[in-house]
Amino acid sequence: MKKLIIVGAGVSGLSAGVYAARNGFDVTIFEKHIIPGGLSTSWKRKGYLFEGGMHWLTGSSEKLFLNKVWREVGALKENNPVFYRDPFYVLKSGGKELCLYRDVDRLEEELLRYAPEDKRAIRRLCDDIRLFKGVHMIVDDIPFLKTKNPVHPGIFELLRMAIVIFRLPFLVQQSYIDYLSKFKNKDIRHLLATVIGTRYNALSFVYTLASFASGDCGYPAGGSLRLTRNMADTFESLGGKIEYRREVSKIVVEGGKASGVVVNDEFVPSDAVIVTEDMRKAVETLFDVQLNRRWLSVLRRHVITEQNMFVCLGVKADLRKYPRGIVFPLEKPLCAGGLEFNELRINNYAEYENHSPEGCTSVTCLLLGNSYAYWKQAKDDGTYKQKKQQLADDVISELEKRMPEIKDAVEVIDVATPLTYERYCNTYEGSWMTVWRPGGRAINAPIKSLSVKNLYFAGQRTIMPGGLPIAVVSGRKAVQYLCRDNNVMFRSAE
To answer: What is the pTM for the complete model shown?
Structure first.
């Protein structure tokens, strides 16, 4: 049995681990943290659970083949049924409400009711959503793979998605912000600006809403912790081993082949290595040898990181009367991390089981943008804790104006910055996705190393823009390359 080492127990590492163990490899995962999950993470503070990774799961719909992949790796089981929040967000402004519904017909009706002056822009948005409803992530096998159950998209599946071909280039070229600027109504702009990070192209925005409209993107019960714990349990049930608090500091390459890793100054030999640590960082820090220069230069040039500030509040009050997802427009911008925000995006977990003590509520506020340099400077000059507290105070102050139950009821405050994610997950600039900019091309990095034998990569950075579906599928593909190189028949399930 050939020995495989996997660097990192995030979603891609666990995915690779499950498939490799199922195909007869002796697999050990080294993980620097004390829990599995990587960037798909949650944490508890004094009885409150804060969801810090997954806010929806692409591939939760059983109509998609990606759902089968999630079930093959054990992520979705009976213990985490999927819940579909609808409306996804509710904007609350001056006593008025505006709902972001999943169903495109209902969404169109709602937007027209609220802002009939924006009829043309609303029709265009809803037509785009309808057009892209049939578009989804393609899952297929690598070329020349031996497998009993080959997976390749059918001609009718591809034809159904081909109808977007004429609209696609325009949306790739246009910015998300320019797309939203067509709406005259300020509240509609506030609501729609909270779907994804505003630095993306318009296609990323439309595709996300279309995924909601297609019946996908639910939230599995227990969130990131349960989903990744399920994967880790599946991996260990197949004989795989996870060694926590064991950070890999080097990939050893001898004679053009990966021969093992260095962990805590100890050399651990192996027949192959799969690196699932953030590729953008791993290629700079884990190798003494120069990897393929062409794709390294592409990574350095095109990886623009998506980062977030995350304010978590444990509130000693039951906030069930408020929507699960809330958008609050701000009268004046909130300054945070050197950026300005015109609205607050709030997740209210009052109705979710096991997220807070009885009668209490976990509340989180997600602020997206490039704030890494700001927080790095604050860490260097000693103002980091002070600025985190100021951010929390500012968010609480704004929420108290709109949710009076919060006043004097916040008993837990936890603020995560890009440095938090960098510290625990070894991710480049503390980021969890790559920004697909207007006019930019979606880059793919090789999963099998082009210059070092027995070396493979997986993770959200392998295909732009990344995220959980890329992570789980890249782990699967890495093991397919491993099987093909070792003349092993690939098995996806028992």
So the answer is: 0.95
